[in-house]
User: Fold Dephospho-CoA kinase from Corynebacterium lipophiloflavum.
Amino acid sequence: MLKIGLTGGIGSGKSTVAKLLREAGYPVVDADQVARDNMEPGSPVLAEVAEAFGADIVRDDGSLDRAELARRAFSDEERTRTLNAITHPAIRAESNRRFAELETQGAAAAVYDMPLLVELGLDEEMDLTIVVDVHPDERVRRLVSSRGLDEQDARNRISRQISDAERRAKADVVIDNNGSLEELKQQVNEVVSRIGKML
Assistant:
């Protein structure tokens, strides 16, 4: 089974590309969804996070108070590393399990929608790495208009990620998403055609 890595900075439109690839018939393992699933009430990952960051990050109904965890975990680099040391291996293990399941079901190729693909070196494990690229100012505009972030928060989040140049350097395919949805769809169609030739 071919593994297709899909990544891009916050606000790049990576989720839209993932949706188009799913519509083209390729199942998607979404790392963000895996991360949410791993923090379901009663999960061992949630228990470990609560032990590290305080039992009160778990609400009375057993669910995670995400905003409070973010406030504590991203207050300094050491705390961020602590959270990553708990969550990243769990995300990787569950993602691998989902890929194995898709392979068992006969999928010829599957997409790994992973924001930190390059940062974690996971691009090395992919048969094809796609980077969705958008100018930082356009990403800020989209984050402010569609996600309701204020401009400074959007810029801070972008600055905490690796540079676009570092991401592009690891790409087999760069999708330029500065244009219209139609232009984006055309580029995704070209990627689908390339994947088809690899199978």
User: Anything to note?
Assistant: Residues 1-27+108-198 form a domain with the Rossmann fold fold (CATH 3.40.50.300).
